[in-house]
Design a protein that fits this description.
Distance between the termini: 96 Å
Amino acid sequence: MTITAGTAHRPPKEAVEEPRQATVVPPPVPTPEPPKRRPGQRIVAARAALRHRFRSTVPARLRLLRAATVLLAVALGTVLLVAGLAANDTWDAVADRDAPRTTSAAGLDLALNDMDAQAANILLSSGNGGTGELTAPHAKAVTLYGDARREIGHDLRTLAAAAQGDRTDEKTVESITDNFAEYQELIGRALENDRRADGKPDAIADYRHATDLLRDSLLPDARKLVSSNDTAFDSRYTAARSALSAQLVAVLALGLPLLAVLGVVQWYLARRFRRNLNPALLAATVCALAAVVLGTQLLSSTATHLKVARHDAFDSVVALSRARAIAYDANADESRYLLDPQRRTRYADSFLAKSQELYGIKGATLSTYDAGLAATWQDYRADATDPRFTGEFRRELDNITFPGERAAADKTVDAYAVYERDDRKIRALLAAGEEQQAVEFCMGWQAGTSNAHFGAWMTALDQVTDINRAHFTSSVGEGRSELSGLLPWACGLLCAAMALAALGLRPRLAEFR
């Protein structure tokens, strides 16, 4: 063993790790939360994202245009359908409820006056206890009296059914029904007393009470019904016309954008796909245009027919119906004037008042009325704007609308003037002490007598009324016919427009699948 001097044996040196400095790990930095959005901001962001999505690709744009077309077409069809149903309800109400109620009320007014006039004629023509009877006028008066009484019963039943649900009209009809029962009792007693010898004074007293009941209660209530039903009719007309105007605006507000969208689609396809024409879209545009035209025509023609029915025709019917009722009451005043000497002044004044209601002349009296009528009528024939007379005839003359109406209205006033002159003759005969001749002239039906002239006047009045009634009926029929004819076509064309638009876009959308 060799020992090397100066060398010391050392154990193997182990790897000794040097001490490391501690690594400082920074604390984690919290990630900031995204700011919370308010509900309104989220909606705006969602809309923006949706717009970006739909605008970002061609298919999305095409789908958007297709959706706009469908929505506008559906909205337009809904407006037309609602308008059509409302118009149909209006025509049903006008033709089946409003007009019949008003004419029934006017007919009641007329029948009450006619019944009272014929009661006076019966008493006037019966002589005294059966002696001195005017046979033909008496039989005629009895027949007309029965006809008027039956007409009143029919009108009361109609008005009672129509008034259900309207408490005011119900009470009015109940009042008329009760008072009419009392009126019939008084007239029946008067006719019974008239059959007795020397019973004429008692008969006249009973008739006087009946006439007072008629004037104070029955006629005011009947005219209240005429006014109430006519006002209800006019209110419905005003509301319907206003609704039609609003619906016409809505149709244009939806129809024009629909046509514009279809035009934009056609333009976009031509620009993007370099095709000049898309036949299906062109057909859709034509269908939409036709639907808009038919829709506007439907609404405007309905408004026009409604105006003709209500104002041009029915206003005249109401005026002429009132004129006829007033005429019968005036004719009764002539009979009352001859029948009841104690009330002659009262009945003369009443006749003049009714004449003024028919053809009003300011300041006229019975002695000046004929001259005033002749002068004002001559001036009116020369200048229809001459304002110097008023009344129910003037209402009709200011509403002349239909062919033949002017000539018939002129004929009515001419016949009225003849009847008015007959009244002066009756009074002149009575003033001259020729009472029997006055009665025979008043009640006779032979040519040239007062009743014959009254009948000619009523015939002329009926001709004018019939012209207006006929145009009322035809306007209602035409309005209903156009509604049933145009509405299905308009809605069908809109459905076709939607289908054709979808068909026209389908091949273009298929190119992107």
